[in-house]
Please model this.
Amino acid sequence: MLKLIVNEYIKMLKRKSTIIATIIVVLACVGLQLILKYTFNNLYSDEDYDSRSSMTVEAYEESIQQRIEDGDVLHSTKRQLEFVQALKKVGIKEMDHPCVSEVEEVILSGSYHGMPVEEKDVPQVLELISYECTDFTHFLEIASEQSDMEYTKAALNNAITNPYKYLLDKGVKDVDDERVQKVYDIVNLQNQIESYDDNSADTIEMIKNYKVTKYALDNNLGYYIDDNTSLSMYSGEKQETLWMVLLNSSSIFAILSICMLVLAGQIVAKEFSEGTIKFLLINPVKRGKIITSKYLTLVSMSFILMVVTFVINIVLAVIFNGGHNLGCQYVTYSLSKEKVVAYAAILYYAKTYLLSFVQVIVYETMAFALSSLLRSTAAAVGAGIACMLGGSIVTSIMMAFHIDWGRYLIFSNVDLQAVMNQTTGYIGHTMTFAVGVIVVHMIVFLLTAYDGFVRREV
Amino acid sequence: METALKIEHLNKTLGKKQILHDVSFETYKGEVFGFLGPNGAGKTTTIKIAVGMLFLDEGEISICGVDIKKNFEDAMSLVGGIVENPEMYKELSGMDNLKQYARMRKGVDQERIDRVVEIVGLSNRINDKVKKYSLGMRQRLGVAQAILHRPEVLILDEPTNGLDPAGIKGLRNVLIRIAHEENCSVIVSSHLMSEMELMCDRVGIIANGKMLAIKQIDEFKEEAFGNSLKYSVVTADNDKAMQLITSKFDVEAKLSGDGIKVEVSIPKESDVKISGINRALIEDGIDIETVVQEESRSLEDAFIQLTAQEGGNQIA
Model:
């Protein structure tokens, strides 16, 4: 059997189409990485928000004064000036300080922790903020003294889980510490979970986020990735690009699928169209073995290409985006195990890669069956690509018309990554269901291929 | 003689048409067997069934006693062959093609491959890609592939197609040598009797899916030439000459070619000599222009006549 596979590899690798397909896959990999790099880099550079957050307070103040001198008489511009002066009063020097938004809320919307602040109370609130942002211990003291005020109550309520105390326990002194933002996130999530208090998908999602963020905080993870990394809005942090790029590079599988489809369409049909089948079958080898060796060659070839693209993706992504986060952790909350699971992000990437790879195997098996059945390379490749592209169009049309049995079609199930992330559009589309549909189809494809080859008269 | 390929009561229907009707024959080790028939007679179908490309509806086929249905791999390891055109992997060199086959068969090493390449006369071009080969070169490569694993039964479907005269002669000698010296059973299919005549020991004739005759090539010759000698006699007055010959001698004579000549056939055992007829004609005052001995009926004519009885020259 091994010798048969060697034979198939020699035949395949000597074919121009194989070499072209391999080059296309590699080029697609490089191209994809370049596109992603520039996409994310542009997002990074043209954010308006960004230009403000990278300024110092003084520079921002100057820019506003410049606008006024230039003849800007809008009321909002004047309020901006007021806001900047308040920032200076509180003692904030950089515009990306976490408490900037709190000051902005007080000055521009007249509220603090969601509660209205009267004009006369503004100086008092600003003082409170100045402590909130610098000295948590003092903030708690002052806030408890003023607990008769609505907004102070709200501030304390938000602090009820004592995030400030938590931070102090963790030895966080610097408000610039990224953990401060995480504590805010946790408090927000907790409040929302309590207020919804149901089992809707949104709540479950929030619980997952809460557990994951808390785990990361408790274990001082620093930068980590989770299930939202590939979907989340890009916040402009340079450190995020590496994993954003990697987790968004799954479109390589469409190209890999098409290339493997061409190879699969050829591997049996070409023997017939070239007439070499007669010289293959005259050998003392059963047809079952020949067709099996052809299939194994195909699967192993696509596996090799997958590993190659995987490595190219990582290497290029590291070269383009920097690799200091490559070794970070992936954190998720397992609903079934009811605990947080964390492992190396690169393993998580490999796992998602393998899940997406399943579609390549499914499509190439389909083309392999067509190749064996139709005995014409052009027909097999054409029908294979038509099925692959047409299938996804058909399923999305069925989805649009709410035809639920579309979920039984192979095309709705091949992207296991989408099934796992629940983004296929079918309600209750579970992994088990998708795997079941795929297995049934694979059996049909393989039996067709086997039967078409073994029982066919030449 | 040891039986090599044994085909018994083979029936085959493709689509609605029955291609083979109860075909049976045997070949022996050490002989070249000619499998002869016009286009569409069922030669290739029979060969394809024997090597497992088509499946048999009814009948039994064994190779050196091994049933091809029950023990396909063992039976096939005893067979080498070319079926229809010699199509090889075009992107590979001749050598790489042979290595492909060597990997699928037992007991073929590099030395054997080199030897086989030498036998078929491809040593100088064996490392060229097959797409640069002519039909004749591919045919040679096909033969090399077929004899690579020293088969007990060698089945070649029209192997002289595309070969030049020197190539045909070379192949003929190779096949005769393999059969007679290596004790292999060589089966060669063809629609050319003249080709068969030169290399076969025995010939089986098939037409419209039926085996018509299986005979030693000498028996065929005997039958074809018959027991009489034939002469064409051209005289100044053919009508008169014919009457004279039939009245005076116990031989057959008839006018042919719209009366331009008299065909005379003298039985071998007869005392009559053509010289006697000559003299009689001259004595009777009939001027003789030419007297030529006819190549009586050729084997080709015998073959055409035999197969014509089965549906004439229409493709069945």
User: Anything to note?
Assistant: Residues 165-181 of chain B form the longest helix (17 residues). The mean pLDDT of chain B is 85.
